[in-house]
Amino acid sequence: MMSNLTGAERTTAMTIAGFGALIGLAMAAAGHGDPMGVHGWIVLAFFGVLFFIVASALYSPEPVEDRALSYYDDPTKVGIILALIWAVVGMFMGVWVASQLAWPDLRFEGAWSGFGRLRPVHTSGVIFGFGGNALIATSYHIMQRTSRARMPGQISPWFVLLGFNLFCILAASGYVMGVTQSKEYAEAEWYADIWLVVVWVVYFILYMRTLSRRNEPHIYVANWYYLSFILVVAILHIVNNLAVPASWTGAKSYSLFSGVQDAMTQWWYGHNAVAFFLTTGFLGMLYYFLPKRAGRPIYSYRLSILSFWGIVFFYIWVGSHHLHYTALPHWVQTLGMTFSVMLLVPSWASAGNALMTLNGAWGKVRDDATLRFMMMAAVFYGLSTFEGSFMAIRPVNGLSHYTDWTVGHVHAGAMGWVALITFGSIYALTPVLWRRETMYSWKAVEWHFWLALSGTVIYVFSMWNSGIIQGLMWRTYTETGTLKFSFVDSLVAMHPYYIARAFGGLLFLTGACICLWNVVMTILHVPQKAPELDYPTSSEAMEPALPAAE
Amino acid sequence: MFKTILKPFAKLFDFQARTHYRMERHSMALTAGIIVAASIGGFVEIAPLFSIDDTVEDVPDMRIYTPLEQAGRDIYIREGCYACHSQMIRSLRDEVERYGPYSLAVESKYDHPMLWGSKRTGPDLARVGDKFSDDWQVRHLVNPRNLVPESVMPQYAFLLETELKTSDMPGRLAALRAVGVPYTDEMIENAENDMKGQARPETEAADAVMDRYGDDTAVRFFDGRRDRVTEMDAVVAYLQILGNLTDLAQTSQPQAEE
Ligand code: HEM
Ligand code: HEM
Asked: What is the ipTM for the molecules in this complex?
């Protein structure tokens, strides 16, 4: 890793790490007696380790060949491994919290292991740890390949990747200590939020600078999706996290907004975290790896662009479908509902585009589990967006809101779409990245596929069942016009489904562990093989970066 | 198949393709396009909520949280109670009958952040105040399964053993004032004493709390312990005020028939 950096770059890296360590020390001193102090020590340890890693290689040989002749893949490699580690951690937490709902005493004595503290570790772990690392890593890969240019800096990709992971660590360790803003998917406290803004700005600059060095006149559509992910997440993050800290030496802060305005801002953020974190970035992944793997051009490039603008424009309006029948003014609810239904058009256009791309390559889909991962992801994307548009209709939401139906919808999207497309991309990417002939075990990929699919199906079906039962029980009346079931009655009815869900999750987690093992074994044991033409080229006569579109 | 469906739109496609083809060469134009497209919806939906007057009802007697209740709220957030409990009764018949009058915007006016929630693993708590005795609440939090055998709620026995930290409360009230909650200088200065006073009836400090926050303020040994003020005191004080900050909902909505 270090051999790709020049002496000057190593010194810069050490300076940044040293500076970070100082900030950590300052936080530890100022926040003594508060969870912020603990975070200070974590920051110090994080940068301290980095400092020593770089320092120990400070005088090792410098790169000799011209670096501009190759892509910079080291950060991508580390990013993929980190994504898989977070996947295992985050999904383990998922299985644990799922089990707590079935067997509430499945925890340790301490406060830290209660459901309320662990649940955000699961959500942030999978969304940001797993999803975020996968997005950053694949974006590095794709922006270089589709631009036929190496990333400009050698330090900034590391800064973004590792800085982002520091954010994830601060977030997750904060939740178990009880540090949270309580805003779903934006739980991390103010200093972690500020840090993420710094990281994100560097990410954006890195992306733009790579694009500006491209040797292709056009910006391939996958980059569009990634760029919207970077930009809009920045806007959402900054606005929703506006808060006033109770003290500069403590973690606690209070949101700038309250009540209705806060609810609207939160769900404007919340649903667009779905849109721009869990959808557009992963669509970028899909638009690169699917055609590449299938060896066929995107069915319709234009459709992909049209749906891009549809998604970017429509999604922003839909947040209020989280607030039907609440104290939010009626007109905002109606707007949210209307746009949610319209959103189905660009969503299905994307899913359809992906599936039509495979038309004619079904033989490959049958034989190649990697491609099947991607195909299944597109199917689940279509399914969960249809479901989402349906649930956004006010009377339907009257039933589904607050119940496990929402959780079923979430995981149809999160496991079926987000995780499957990521695993598919990782299997396609690993041999290219590490210059290996193939994956270590195709059988294991096959196993992973079926474990993941059956896990998702079990999870989603049990939550659909429990959610609808729950919703109906809450509104069932006896003949005399009184409510028929107590809350506890509905709770008892959930028990078997909660067990089934935990089991489905366990299958899914097993699959993720197999994936991590398979990737590590590929790196360790599979013979080298350099892929053809995988270096920056300026000639347009060369083979295109992707199968040519119409 | 797709192609035939899309045929009528061919012209539009063509125009879009041509302009787009040009734009695709410019990453800055792309960036600007994304920002514009992604800002409109949020602006149209959020900005009016701050400016339209009847978004939040006008209620002069709307009470603010006492420091002890606010501390309880902070613990509620810390423990992630909101992950299982909503605090937003929707305007649906069964919810109103189960939980009470539907929630009004004004009731969370001083909630930074709001805790409406998105999942009811447990029941809604928006009007749980005064529904149970303090003693029930304490025993329920110590171990929910002692009272409700089927419950899946975690036990929070440690709240009863943990002394309530008061030293950071003035700073917290000041921050809340900065975001719009009308705490006075006096309230901020006396926050620590007021926290203790509200959990120690018949002391001078207790009277001071009533002076500052109104005679209706509940002053009790919430956790049943006379020896010290614990986190349990704070949480129970908070739970008992839920739904009682104003009685607008009770007075303005027709009662569900008995
Ligand atoms: C091993 C598989 C998984 C299991 C067992 C699992 C389990 C759970 C459980 C038990 C909850 C809490 C539900 C509740 O409060 O009732 C939850 C919430 C959530 N999970 Fe997972 N999960 C898994 C995988 C994933 C993945 C891969 C993602 C995302 C990429 C994800 C994203 C979420 C989100 C966003 C929520 C919050 C849902 C909401 O607030 O409605 N999960 N999960
Ligand atoms: C057309 C697209 C979609 C629409 C219209 C839509 C609509 C909805 C609706 C109506 C809810 C329920 C809100 C509530 O009652 O509280 C919801 C929740 C959710 N959806 Fe979707 N959805 C879409 C696609 C997706 C996708 C692809 C994912 C990917 C992972 C996803 C993730 C989530 C999450 C995480 C929540 C739970 C939020 C929470 O309560 O914490 N959605 N969505």
From this structure: 0.95
